[in-house]
From TrEMBL:
Residues 258-327 form the Tyrosine specific protein phosphatases domain. This is Tyrosine specific protein phosphatases domain-containing protein. InterPro entries: Dual-sp_phosphatase_cat-dom, mRNA_Capping_Enz/RNA_Phosphat, Prot-tyrosine_phosphatase-like, Tyr_Pase_AS, Tyr_Pase_dom. GO terms for molecular function: mRNA guanylyltransferase activity. It comes from Uncinocarpus reesii (strain UAMH 1704).
Amino acid sequence: MAWGTLPVYDSSGRPTSGLPGEAIWKGVCVPLLFIAGESDQVTKATEVSKLLEYFGVPSSFYKPEIGGEGDMPSRRSPLLKGPADGIPGSSILASSYIPAVSHREPYSKEKANVKAFIFPSPASHALPYDRATYRALSGLIQDFLCNYTDSRLSIGWQLKHLTTSGKWDVKNLAKWKAVAPVSNPVGNTFFALKTLRELDEEHSPLPFVQKWKSRIFAIIDISHESPIYNPTQLDQGGIQYHKLPTVSKIPPTIDEVRDFVALVDRLEGEISARIRDEGINGRPRPLIGVHCHYGFNRTGFFLTSYLIERKGFTIEEALEEFKRCRPPGIRHPHFIDTLFVRYCAGLRGDLGL
């Protein structure tokens, strides 16, 4: 591998192999996406700035916040440097991911479709694997591919043109239709939902936003599959969308619950901040919608876990609250077993059976 990075020169002294240099990069005509971590000591973020110079982007696009290249700036440093003066940036979809970073506009060189993003410290060479960055990274790549390579890679396009009644729809349409779309408020914090469906006249993004925008601040999608609706329409309508995939039939892991609790804590903080800034004018406090497929087992597990960990509910109280608001409550006995083992290591009650 190291040998392959060394150049071979032709008779005129020009390199014909090895790592690409300025001439090679300047000849690239396809869309390019550069992503780096500010604390990466293997491929440093300053290399992105050097590459962008080949495309006429000012060298000031990225400079370390503190001292030299080896310093580690604070997590408070901006995620993205840019856009440059006079050159408009392109929007990044607000579809949501684990909230380790906050998005700003990227630098955009419209003619060459060159995009660049710098994740703040402590983001490093492990960007694709780090729990704090991999979802945001995935979202940036998804957005770039559908906007700058082929629009058919967009989930919105696929839902519109490929949806029939199989993989792009609910597994059991009759069962899905029989389930109530939205529960009563759970613990004054959540609404339990069944998954939205792009082809449904009522429980699809646009009518959902019109009906629930003032009552639901965000939706957390905990289904494992890609959504069968276009979440961008939620974001555009003012309801945040967050994806936290989990496997059906299996109780959520401790790490998954930890991620869920952290995400809800952050969203609750944003709701409180909005109320402080804008006032509530007599309206009820906005809540957070959560759905898996039908909104009973995994959804119930996460909601009861949060009520126990953050709201002071006992296990029995949390299970009863969910059952009251989303009857018949959690349906899988082994989910209830896991809750009792995890939170009190006692005997399982008969709630929800």
